[in-house]
From TrEMBL:
This is Uncharacterized protein. Transmembrane segments: none annotated. Residues 1-15 form the signal peptide. It comes from the Eukaryota. Keywords: Signal. It comes from Cudoniella acicularis. The lineage of its organism: Eukaryota, Fungi, Dikarya, Ascomycota, Pezizomycotina. InterPro entries: 6-blade_b-propeller_TolB-like, Hetero-Diels-Alderase-like.
Length: 220
């Protein structure tokens, strides 16, 4: 199967179908690009300049896509060591993204214990000619107790109103981990029936997956 990336945008000149007299924005869908067969695109983040970052479940690769081009070509911007794939992505500073990674088999469902960690991709160096414009990749913390770090989101409270916590869904354990980005301490902040797999993992059960925060609420 070929996995397309789609872009939604508003075309302001189209009238609303139920109210022809109104000029109401309607979403228009167009295909941006296609990845090769057996590529699994897991998550998408948007940079401050509008460029898209996509993580791959099938390789430890972070790609960038320019949605403003007519026919954009995905560009590999970062690779992560000692991992079979990367999953969650969330912006923790302007143009700095936290990314979850680990070792697992999408064919057998087996997970390598103690392989999960959180890394970051720093795009600020692209403005620094001393680094040659390369994206700087570095580890934030290991989470050896985690089993499958999936979606990620952030919580404020840091210095000067910045990001203080990274929340990560663990789809096998069925919990949400909280990582303090200042102290690097972590704990399972949410472990309830709603986050647990509905059937045993051996039978394909999967717990909490995507997570998002807004106005003090956590959506799952």
């Amino acid at each position: 199967m070929i996995w397309p990336i789609l872009l939604l945008f508003l075309q302001l000149s189209i009238a609303h179908p139920f109210h022809p007299e109104r000029s109401t924005p309607l979403p228009v869908i167009r295909q941006l690009c296609e990845f090769p067969n057996v590529t699994w695109i897991e998550n998408i983040a948007v940079r401050s300049n509008g460029l898209l970052l996509v993580t791959l479940f099938t390789s430890p690769s972070l790609y960038q896509i320019d949605p403003f081009q007519a026919n954009p070509v995905p560009t590999l911007v970062a690779s992560f060591p000692s991992a079979l794939g990367i999953l969650g992505i969330a912006e923790i500073e302007k143009d700095v993204f936290a990314i979850t990674k680990g070792n697992f088999s999408r064919f057998t469902g087996l997970v390598t214990p103690k392989s999960w960690s959180v890394w970051k991709a720093d795009f600020r160096a692209q403005e620094n000619t001393d680094t040659g414009g390369a994206v700087v990749v570095s580890k934030i913390a290991d989470l050896p107790e985690a089993m499958f770090l999936n979606g990620a989101t952030t919580v404020g409270g840091g210095e000067k109103g910045g990001i203080k916590f990274l929340l990560m869904a663990d789809s096998i354990l069925g919990v949400v981990w909280r990582l303090n980005l200042d102290t690097l301490q972590y704990d399972p902040v949410l472990n309830v029936t709603a986050t647990q797999p509905t059937v045993p993992v051996a039978q394909g059960g999967f717990g909490v997956n995507g997570v998002h925060t807004r106005d003090g609420f956590l959506g799952m």
